[in-house]
Write a structure and sequence with these properties.
This protein is an alpha+beta fold. It contains 4 helices and 7 strands.
Length: about 150
């Protein structure tokens, strides 16, 4: 089954107030962190999950950035789409090799379900890699604001 994810739309990133302030100011880095699919900048399609993540990691300093992607196809960036099963297999391999903070796919953006959730209702995550992705995300064409969730 071919998976097709729409990149254009509203996405969310949970973190500390200072990191979210940096995001809204156009200071996104794709060379930090280490999520399910390795190093990169992650956003998800459910604001309440970004808020819950931020509160879990930074109870007293939690904040959420709302990111609006428009005309991704016109950006010229490359996209890799993973099914839940493919993402789960990659996640397991990344964990087994302790590569959460180093693994890269070599694509600008990876669209995949969050594999820590049930397959039937898995929300979508976008993992952004590389300097071209960071330049795109930090450009004025991508709206970034601090939101209250």
């Amino acid at each position: 089954m071919k998976v097709e994810y729409e990149i254009d739309g509203t996405w969310y990133h949970g973190g500390t107030h200072s990191s979210v302030t940096g995001i809204s100011a156009g200071k996104i880095s794709t060379n930090m962190g280490g999520g399910e699919l390795g190093i990169g900048f992650y956003i998800g399609n459910f604001g309440h999950l970004a808020s819950a993540w931020a509160k879990h990691k930074n109870r007293k300093d939690a904040a959420v950035a709302e990111i609006e992607i428009v005309d991704f196809k016109g950006s010229g960036l490359g996209k890799l789409e993973l099914s839940w099963l493919s993402a789960k297999e990659k996640y397991i391999n990344i964990r087994l090799t302790a590569a959460q903070r180093t693994f890269k796919f070599g694509k600008d953006v990876i669209a995949a379900p969050i594999v820590g959730k049930a397959i039937s209702c898995a929300p979508v995550q976008l993992k952004w890699e590389g300097s071209e992705s960071a330049t795109y995300l930090n450009s004025p064409s991508v709206a970034k604001v601090i939101t209250k969730l």
